[in-house]
Design a protein that fits this description.
The chain has helices at about 15-20, 40-45, 50-55, 55-65, 130-145, 185-195, 200-210, 220-245, 295-315, 315-330, 330-345, 360-370, 375-385, 390-395, 400-415, 420-430, 440-450, 455-465, and strands at about 25, 35-40, 75, 80-85, 85-90, 95-105, 110-115, 155-165, 170-180, 245, 270. By secondary structure, the chain is α+β, with helices and mostly antiparallel strands. Among the domains are: about 15-185, no CATH class; about 185-345, no CATH class. It is globular. The model has no long low-confidence stretch (mean pLDDT about 95). Bound molecules: adenosine monophosphate and magnesium ion. Magnesium ion binds near residues 255 and 264.
């Protein structure tokens, strides 16, 4: 079963080569009866791989981990992490493997990684497995994020293993083949720093600089410039999440990348009604990872990254802390600049900030007070810019409060001398009609795991063009019916 196969991918494993102390060569546990459930043909093309070859038994064997392609050195990566605020010195890929790195058609280095591929030396008490449903969920939400223009890891394929996995009930098992610009996390730096060898830490930092933040290499203090780059990409990323109502759900430091890509779609979900306190994850009792806390948590995680990097920042500990603190403090400005810019775009207010800055905050208070759907609102507001107020007024139980706000909003649009129709079109380019709504995702996964792939494929098609209203897709553009109760997601998937 583990015979080498002809190379579908040409691997160049820089991580395994350069950072052997931070990973362990390992093999997947063979899946008894692999069946390809979903294949991302667009992504395969980006990787320069023939999708037809991936659909053959040899291709599926690679995607599920049954075959190790020639030239690959699969490894389980080591990392530490703060989980819900508590430090765990050794996490690592407990049920995942980095198969290898490939150069895509644009010459970018991308990781090919398997999740659900069996126990590794980092498995602790876990079974190394993943149920099929959550792997399909990661596929669809990642693709939705990608189509929304948000940096993310992406699914190449999901393969059913033919094995049952024990959770609350027995569930079909699955393996996700995932592509990322790398799987280097804040937790990877925490792990390297905890080894107490600054030479290893430096090698990891140099590797991450080359891969993700090459401009830092030219700076007077490359490691400080690297830190600043990570702070910047994470501030930008979290702003993007907030602008579409995305709740990651488990922002532990091991689930935060150095590249600025969203990673690990476990208990994540999108807001319906706007409420900063929204939590979906069943284990997030304190609301640590609530929607509205995400920027603060990102900054907290970046403080943990700074602590790990201190030995590289300055030989003088106090000077290192001072330099890191100054960069960390800039997170707020970097985040708010992106958020404000994005909110103005959502409201059709192009150009620089104006005296109407309070518009955004007042709007969010209104949406919160009247429990208005965050996604539906902005498309309906574009209709109002086109002259039809009825859809947006209909979203409010007490539309008078909205009317007062809308008068100020119209004044702000015209003060910028923007033609309202042009503003409406610009709004529609940034405000999605279709997001992976919880009930739609559940429906698609239930059908797929029961053997009917069509709802899943249909949902993927809808979410691939999130900004383009299409007739016949009305049910994809509205929240679940009232009375369906609060949505809950589960960790330990
Ligand atoms: P997560 O919160 O899903 O990002 O995972 C946190 C840690 O738990 C990582 O080290 C995972 O590799 C590990 N883990 C999660 N589920 C399992 C499992 N079923 N078997 C082994 N390790 C797991
Ligand atoms: Mg994780």
């Amino acid at each position: 079963m583990s015979a080498p196969v002809r190379p579908l991918f040409a691997f160049d494993d820089s991580y395994a080569r350069e950072l052997g102390e931070l990973c362990q060569p390992w093999r997947a546990t063979p899946a008894p009866d692999p069946r390809l459930m979903a294949l991302n043909e667009g992504l395969a093309a980006e990787l320069g791989v023939d999708a037809r070859a991936l659909r053959t038994p040899e291709g599926v064997a690679v995607l599920v981990g049954n075959a190790v392609p020639d030239g690959a050195t699969p490894v389980a990566q080591a990392y530490a992490g703060h989980q819900f605020g508590g430090y765990v010195p050794r996490l690592g890929d407990g049920r995942a493997l980095l198969v290898g790195e490939v150069h895509d058609v644009l010459g970018r280095r991308r990781d090919l990684h398997l999740k659900g591929s069996g126990r590794t030396p980092f498995a602790r008490g876990g079974d190394g497995r993943a149920p099929l449903g959550p792997m399909l969920r990661e596929y669809v939400i990642g693709e939705a994020m990608h189509a929304l223009g948000i940096p993310t890891t992406r699914a190449l394929a999901v393969v059913a293993t033919g094995e049952q996995v024990a959770r609350d009930t027995m569930l079909p098992g699955g393996v996700l083949a995932r592509v990322a610009s790398s799987h280097i996390r804040v937790g990877t730096f925490q792990y390297a720093a905890a080894q107490g060898e600054s030479e290893l830490l430096r090698r990891l930092a140099d590797h991450a600089i080359t891969r993700h933040h090459p401009a830092a290499a030219e700076a007077a203090n490359p490691y400080l410039a690297f830190y600043e780059s990570v702070v910047d990409v994470q501030a930008a990323l979290v702003a993007r999440w907030m602008l579409v109502g995305f709740v990651h759900g488990v922002m532990n430091t091991d689930n935060m990348t150095i590249s600025g890509e969203t990673i690990d779609y476990g208990p994540c979900a999108f807001l319906d009604a706007y409420d900063p306190a929204t939590v979906f994850s069943s284990i997030d009792h304190g609301g640590r990872y609530a929607y509205g806390n995400q920027p603060a948590v990102a900054q907290w995680n970046l403080a943990r990254l700074a602590e790990s990097l201190l030995p590289l920042l300055d030989p003088e500990p106090e000077a290192a802390v001072g330099a890191a603190t100054e960069v960390l403090r800039s997170f707020g400005d970097r985040y708010h600049r992106r958020l404000d810019e994005g909110m103005r775009a959502k409201l059709g207010l192009t150009g620089p900030a104006g005296p109407d800055d309070a518009l955004t905050g007042d709007l969010l208070a209104l949406l919160h007070a009247q429990r208005v759907d965050f996604t539906v609102f902005f498309r309906a507001l574009a209709d109002a810019a086109r002259g039809d107020d009825a859809p947006v007024r209909g979203l409010f139980g007490e539309p008078e409060a909205f009317d007062a706000w809308a008068g100020r909003w119209r004044a702000a649009v015209s003060a910028r001398q923007v033609d309202p129709r042009g503003a409406a079109e610009a709004m529609d380019r940034v405000n999605p009609v279709y997001i992976p709504r919880n009930h739609l995702v559940e429906e698609a996964l239930a059908a797929a795991t029961a053997g009917d792939p069509l709802p899943f494929e249909r949902l993927l098609e809808v979410l691939a063009r999130p900004f383009e209203t299409r007739p016949g897709l009305e049910r994809y553009a509205v929240p679940a019916e009232a009375g369906s109760g609060p949505y809950r997601t589960f960790c330990g998937t």
